[in-house]
Amino acid sequence: MMVPTATYRIQFRNGMTFDRAIELIPYLQQLGISHLYASPVFTATGESTHGYNVTDANEIDPTIGGRAGFDRLSSALQQAGLGLILDIVPNHMAASLENAWWRDVIEHGEQSAYARYFDIDWSRRLTLPFLGDDFVTVLENGELSVQPHPETGHPSLAYYDSFYPLTPASWQGRADEVLAITDHAALDALHQQQPWQLINWRDARRDLSYRRFFEITGLVGMRVEDEAVFDASHQLILELVHSGAVSGLRVDHIDGLADPQGYLTRLREAAGPDCYITVEKILAEGELIPAEWPISGTTGYEFIAALSHALIDDTQIDALHLAYEVATEERNNVSAGLRAARELMVDRNFAGEFARLLALATRIASEEQRNFGEAELHVALREMLIAFPVYRTYGRRSGMPLAGEELLQQVLEAVKFSASPVALSFVQAILLDALSERSEQDAAEFRARFQQLTGPLMAKSVEDTLFFRNHVLLAINEVGAEPLPHAFSLQHFHHEMQTRLQQQPDALSTTSTHDTKRGEDARARLYALSECPAAWAENVARWRELNQSQVVQLHDGPAPEPAVEWMLYQALLGAWPATLQPQDATGLAALEARFLPFVEKALREGKLRTDWAESNEHYEQAVLAYARHMLSPAHPAFLHDFSQSIQPLIATGMINSLTQTVIKLTAPGVPDIYQGSEAWDFSLVDPDNRREPDFATLQQQLDTQSKPDFSQQSDWLSGKLKQQVIAALLQLRRDIPKLFRFGDYQPLYAIGANAEHVIAYARQDSSHALLVVVPRLMLEGSGWSLSTLLLPESLAHRQYRNLFNGEMLSLNEQLSLENVPYQAPLVLIAS
């Protein structure tokens, strides 16, 4: 297997095509990338901006160049010596009329050749939740009619520009008669004859008849556990792998599958031993990838969580929590907030999925002749789902792994006083397949659906609800982060890196993705708030006073409320371009165009006073007006105050950014560079982080001929310095890949007055030794003078070369940092 030395993620669509990517290949070579890592390239819905709503898994999307364009890209990459990793989407497809398989299911119902490809409950009619109101109202409003299908000419039920094919039995032999139907009662009767029914999109959360991707009704779950479905949906993928065009696969949302291990085993057998495979998997604190999975590891969200331990000041984080409570005048009980978010998901957003599980459990109880009813099971199942601490367990027909058994026991212990012990034990027995043979089939379905539900519940309650409600420190509200308050320590960071080397040394190490809540450099800047809680609280109080006239008093409270004000100032700090001046009207307008959509999304994701399903327009407009006022050149007092106050945070953020960059490129794992983040990336949440980078500027400013100059302020501000550091380290990784893949990871600790400002470790194998020394907690500017790094015997008495300036150092048992500039990372290599 050819394991990448570094990957570069490119988002296709939105203007990015295969031919445009070909133009970037010389730049990627110069940067030092070994593999281009592509977002999904298979045909997706016409309006797709990301490619995860696939309509044809066996066709390369014509909108980005089609198969011919893909082949040109593949050939160009191979000529340049670069590999290609494809993002594949086995869990779901688009529930769209553009999807031929789905359209055939609509037309022929359970008799369709593709009826078992999708995860559909065929005990009832297929629900199509795409109406703006209930069916009767839509019908009475004259929004439905029978029209010839634009492609086939056959009768179809038309709703605006959507044409739902009618099942042949309802029109064959009388096509003209059916096409002439206009009477509402006759239209209703025709609708009743179909194997599907149109329903209000708002009813999907409780009445959907197919498994969806999270809450997205436009994405229908696939049954890839079925060998025929796997073969049909992976035909082109495997062809590209076997031809050598594709050298690696990234599997999207592995936890959504009924049997992740079975799928990955089949994928490995089909793709062969040389294909590099990673999976999108969110690991909770202390959770490990199942050892049985035949993969190289995850796509790296746990790496972001580990970095927070290195860059957050644990001695002051509690003070920041307290400052937030003072500002909001509310007790910030995160545990209670987490439970409330999970309750909302179980009771409302995933009510249909919960109801289906409960019906299965009730049926199994009846089959097993257990003497308790649906009410007891309802409470037990609900409490277990709410208490689930990780994305899922991995029980199969062959049994539940020991780790899963232990996890279920942990969950039962947590909820033992909240539900009937008998009902809890019964649910546990279903999940462990500890029932009689007569319940085996229903128990297997229950186990699969339970395990497919806990992940979406976790993601939507934590990442897409709690993280938009709790604003203490936005930097730690990130995918894969631990939601509850916990200690941060450098020791924990080192432990995570040692574990990474042991468990998944070939996994991707990421700091930005298309799904992260903010760009890596915005996060790095916000980490610095943990170093100055009192000063930040004073700033927020002053800014709130300056903008107090913009707060609107609504019937349900002020808009924005104090917690949202705190969030707005922090989000603006993260997104503020390093060179933006408060009098730059054009720059402010560009920032506003990005900032306002973020604010709207943040409010709706929080689901407190507004929501995606039921938006509170008065509240939203009031908060958006407040945010607009913050960035208005007509109100310079705040802008000048804000800009001046955040300068120390901007400077510290850039140091933090270089620190996390150097760590990503030297610690265990395969560094992944998200498009554009080789320079500064102050993006907000998607879609802002999916904007196409300014590749022309990136190509122009990359200079690999000269050494990084850490004294050049303009290089700091432009991001050129970060780019040069990346290029230098990636060249080193290409030159000595074995050191980074197999070399030992050894934490090093400084002594002296400023030892807490030093992160240090060594990578070492039989041929090379690498010393990495990077700064942390530098807001006060004390640096790391008076600190000394102690070297073990294996690293001492050697000649080292400074990677960034070429200077040679002879080191004995220690490295003094007295005269080493703390703004510059120190990377020393010895042979």
Could you name the key traits of this structure?
single chain, 831 residues, eight-stranded parallel beta sheet, 30 helices, 29 strands, 43% helix
Task: Tell me about this structure.
- By secondary structure, the chain is of the alpha/beta class.
- Helix content is 43%, strand content 15%.
- It contains 30 helices and 29 strands.
- The strands form eight sheets. The chain has an eight-stranded parallel β-sheet with strand order 16-15-14-5-2-1-20-17. Strands 21-23-24-29-26-27 form a six-stranded antiparallel β-sheet.
- α13 crosses α18, α14 crosses α15 and α22 crosses α23.
- The longest helix has 24 residues.
- The two termini are 26 Å apart.
Chart the SSEs and their pairings.
Elements: E1 7-10, H1 18-31, E2 35-38, E3 42-44, E4 54-60, H2 66-79, E5 83-88, E6 92-94, H3 100-108, E7 126-131, H4 135-140, E8 144-148, E9 155-159, E10 162-165, H5 175-179, H6 184-192, E11 196-200, H7 204-207, E12 212-213, E13 216-221, H8 227-233, H9 235-242, E14 248-251, H10 260-271, E15 276-279, E16 297-298, H11 301-311, H12 317-328, H13 334-349, H14 351-367, H15 374-387, H16 402-415, H17 421-431, H18 440-463, H19 490-503, E17 508-509, H20 520-527, H21 533-546, E18 552-554, E19 557-559, H22 562-575, H23 585-606, H24 617-630, H25 636-645, H26 647-666, E20 670-674, H27 695-701, H28 713-718, H29 720-735, H30 737-742, E21 744-748, E22 750-752, E23 758-764, E24 769-775, E25 787-790, E26 798-802, E27 808-811, E28 814-816, E29 826-830
Parallel strand pairs: 1-2, 1-20, 2-5, 5-14, 7-11, 14-15, 15-16, 17-20
Antiparallel strand pairs: 3-4, 6-13, 8-9, 9-10, 12-13, 18-19, 21-23, 22-25, 23-24, 24-29, 25-28, 26-27, 26-29
Helix pairs in contact: 1-2, 11-19, 12-21, 13-15, 13-18, 14-15, 14-18, 15-16, 15-17, 20-22, 20-26, 22-23, 23-24, 26-29
